[in-house]
Amino acid sequence: MAPAWGNSARPVPPEVQSAPIALPHFSPNPANSNPATIVLTSDPYSKSLSQEERATFNPAPLLPQWKKGLGDEGSLDNMPAAKDLTTPSFALADAAIDLELSPEVVKGSPVLQRWLEGVPNVLSDIANTPGFRTRVRLSYDRFPSTNQAAGWNVGIEDIFVGRTGLTVSGDYQTAFDSTVQRDAWGAELRYYLRPLGSYVNLAPVVGYRRLSTSLYSTEGVNLGLRLLLVPSRGGGADIALTQTWVAPGTDREVGLTTLAAGYALTYNLRLFTEIQQQNARQRQDSRLGLGLEWML
């Protein structure tokens, strides 16, 4: 009765049947003091394996050589025990042999390795892989309500907190002319309620913000909602509408309505534009921004 080496039902290729099979046997190796070194030989009458040797012999690494009909002398040290044949690495090797793939191809493809280990849940991966990425941004701004003053804005968007729907964002904006009082800065937390891979998402916003103009200034808690549309996943394109209130419920309350859109130029670089309306009791202010984002 032949020993159970893997799947006994697997057909033997014709080239293996006709090729001289190199039978391994245990013998002293002059180049190696390890007495358990396995030496390959093309001699078909080499020493047959004992029962104990059969229990620890694994032919899987030799199959590629057998398929090619190789019969050159060689050696394989530290052959794995039978119990090691069930490890993931040997499972991958066995699957690769079934598909007639070289070990180099399997080793160089993480996706192929994952599929050989088991069919992944693709729908779950799509739903939970973020459709947008963390972005560092810099923009040129115009303030139409402040005599068309020009300025700049720097910030970072959606730093992911672990593998949750929670992200952190922050920004700073000011005018180029120091005599123009138009400053703002703040940071906020967003918690996306739907899976991060969704094409439509909604996030409550909680943060802190300070605003300053020539007529008024305010600071305090910043609360609101953010609606995110992702027509192209992975940062390719998205549109966001955010409505928040700074110092809500006080006489210094200011509402902020922000519409932003981004479009990827390369894998990491995006062009974005932003329109913001600032509504205070004293007056309304506006800001237009155009800039670049670097996706992390």
Output the CATH topology of the largest domain.
Answer: Porin
C-alpha Rg (nearest Å): 33 Å
Give the end-to-end Cα distance, rounded to a whole number of Å: 59 Å
How many domains, as an integer?
2
**Name given to the CATH architecture of the largest domain:** Beta Barrel
pLDDT below 50 for ≥5 consecutive residues: which ranges?
1-9, 18-47, 65-86
Beta-strand fraction estimate: 35-45%
Fraction of residues in H or I helices: 10-25%
Largest sheet: spatial strand order: 4-5-6-7-8-9-10-11-12-13
Overall outline: elongated
Backbone structural class: alpha+beta
How is the main sheet built?
10 strands, antiparallel, barrel
**CATH secondary-structure class of the largest domain:** Mainly Beta
The strand count comes to 13
Mean pLDDT: 79
CATH superfamily of the largest domain: monomeric porin ompg
Number of helices: 7
H-E string: HEEHHEHHHHEEEEEEEEEE
What are the SSEs and their pairings?
Blueprint lengths: L13 H5 L4 E4 L11 E4 L9 H6 L6 H6 L5 E3 L11 H11 L4 H5 L2 H8 L4 H7 L6 E9 L5 E12 L5 E10 L6 E10 L8 E14 L3 E16 L4 E10 L7 E11 L4 E11 L4 E12 L1
Antiparallel strand pairs: 1-2, 2-3, 4-5, 4-13, 5-6, 6-7, 7-8, 8-9, 9-10, 10-11, 11-12, 12-13
How is this structure best described in words?
The chain has 2 domains: 14-124, no CATH class; 135-295, Porin (Beta Barrel). It is elongated and about 90 Å long. 16% of the residues lie in helices and 43% in strands. The longest helix is centred in the first third of the chain and has 11 residues, at 88-98. The strands form 2 sheets. It has a 10-stranded antiparallel barrel. It has 296 residues and is α+β, with helices and mostly antiparallel strands.
